[in-house]
Amino acid sequence: MWSAMPIMNLDNLIVADPVERGLYVATGGKEMVPVVLDKLVQLLDIENQSSEATPAEGHPPYSAYRYWRRNSRIGQLIWIDSGNVFDPYFVTRQARRRYLDPVRVLRAIKVGRPFTAFQFQQMLDRVPKPALWAPTSVPVTMDPALNKPLSGDLRNSQAVWWTPLVIISDLMGLFYDPDLTEDALVRAFREFMIRLTFLRQRAIVLALLNNDVVPEGRHHLLPEVLKLARRVSTPALDVSEPRLLSATAV
Q: Is the CA virtual torsion 115, 104, 14, 126 positive or negative?
């Protein structure tokens, strides 16, 4: 059912190091939600601390925050709440535990809530492509007539890709909706697979898989999705003291 790619561990997947873009599926469903939310807050805590860094000697005189942000490897944090489980109160509590501003933390996590399978697959298209930034520490040759860099001038040697980290809180639930007709299911699932295939090429996608009751005639859907995915090994969870993770992007 799973692809032939190696099984990942959460500690290797959501780390403060480059992570290969792709689709990663973790079992555990709703029990994983507080763990992942806590890790997003922890990441923003790391971001907050890093913003206090000062530019090294010889760098352009950016503010400390701008200097850090231009050199950050953290992409946008996007929560597609197909399971309707995002808990802003939990995020607020975790932010206050780390002496962070809860409002800023909540604003940093972009939440979208699809109510139907069609909205779900369309929402995948809204995930932005990674933003490319290249510093201009080396002078660029300007075209005096057009007042812009000459075509082919590639002196900006360093580049940082801010890859979005996308959390899907329920991978299959909306496709198991009994009110979804078979014709509508076929159309929605086909478009979903197309969009998911492209999304995994431009983002790190962590999808939570619930132990849903699968309606008759829909058992073939999940195996099709898992052909695109890497499995994530999830340890036994202690909900009272969730494991600490961190997240970043290539």
A: positive
